[in-house]
Amino acid sequence: MTSEPTASASAAPKVSFVSLGCPKALVDSERIITRLRAEGYQLSKSHAGADLVIVNTCGFLDSAKAESLEAIGTAMGENGRVIVTGCMGAEPEQIREAFPGVLAITGPQAYESVMGAVHEAAPPAHDPFLDLVPEQGVKLTPRHYAYLKISEGCNNRCTFCIIPKLRGDLVSRPAGDVLREAERLVKAGVKELLVISQDTSAYGVDLKYAESPWRDRSVRARFFDLSRELGSFGAWVRLHYVYPYPHVDEVIGLMAEGLVLPYLDIPFQHASPQVLKAMRRPAHQEKTLERINKWRGICPDLGVRSTFIVGFPGETDEDFELLLQWLEEAKLERVGCFKFEPVRGAAANALGLPEVPDAVKQSRYKRFMEKQQAISARILKGRVGKRLKVIIDEAGPSVAKGRSQWDAPEIDGNVYVASRRPLRVGDIVTVKIERADAYDLHGVAV
Ligand code: SF4
Known about the structure:
Helix content is 33%, strand content 22%. The protein is built from 13 helices and 20 strands. The chain has helices at residues 7-10, 23-38, 62-78, 92-98, 111-121, 163-167, 175-187, 223-231, 249-256, 273-279, 288-298, 317-330, 358-381; strands spanning 14-19, 42-44, 52-57, 82-86, 104-105, 145-149, 151-152, 171-172, 192-196, 211-214, 217-220, 236-239, 263-265, 303-310, 334-339, 387-394, 399-404, 415-418, 428-436, 441-445. The longest helix has 24 residues, at 358-381. The model is unreliable at 1-10 and 126-134 (pLDDT under 50). The structure holds iron/sulfur cluster. Iron/sulfur cluster is lined by residues 154, 156-158, 161, 163-164, 198-199, 282.
């Protein structure tokens, strides 16, 4: 039963919330907001008039740090009572230096400390409106898809990355816990679960794959076991941040069975063994092309998305040509590319390898993108005439916007769907593809 707001609700402190960064940070934001709402706080749409502002920051790249500092500055200017949390909170000096008046700074995942700081700055209203919290918690993502974080931290030590420094070693959630959250989400109307963590394929290593209770049985904290159980809820299940370890092979079988979407997000980052070694990438010795081909043998529908870095210190012309060649052979469905940025505190800066000049980085980036655009256009053209399942993200009077099973929200392409009957957000419809461009598909609902 839902309580009706009473007079005390209007006395509830108002909090304005800024969420920056990656999907993982978004999940943290959702958790904090859920707690705030559970304790009776109101959310304010603007900083002015709020009792305080929480800024959930990202500190992954220097550009993200600059954006975080700017958001803190705006909150200080418009409100003045600011709590900072998230990745940048792990380095409080920088924030204190720029904004000595900030009320509190906590690191990523420090829900208790954030709530402690909130209680101190704006004590909760007397009557907590627990029942006002929707069943699935407060979600910043649209209602039909949700991110499901299965672990935090990372045991790898890639030299360009400071996430292990910020978030620590891998800590997996017990399988039963993850499954209960997933079940709640699906019951609340979520149609697509996006499984995230820093290294999804390493799930459960820290727990020694321990079993935990789920319904009337136990489930092991293993990537395969968890994926299979998640697939049983009937929602789309999409796996992000997987590494090409041999044990991933068995999960491809679940894709072939239709339990999990035939989509793998694997951040390869490079193809040259020398660069991968300098990056200290997990599974850098694996023969990844062979592995991808093997997976395609098990599940011919498999779509792989990946990201790459060009201009890593010491990357030679030969390394880069090898990367282009690899890309041509791998024929990945979706690819993103970044120019290397030396993140403060990253081991890559102390490797003693020669920096790649900015102009070279830029020209490699351009060549890389052109190459991938042509590959992507070819793959999409091959889908013309096919009937695909599409999940609708945005309804429209005559054309709706959706995604195929090979497109994750916000990072991949779209499918534009013409339809005579009205399509609602979250509908999964069959679409006959009529046209393709470099990144998107266009078709008609059948
Ligand atoms: S796998 Fe590498 S890049 Fe990813 S979080 Fe861990 S250390 Fe960073």
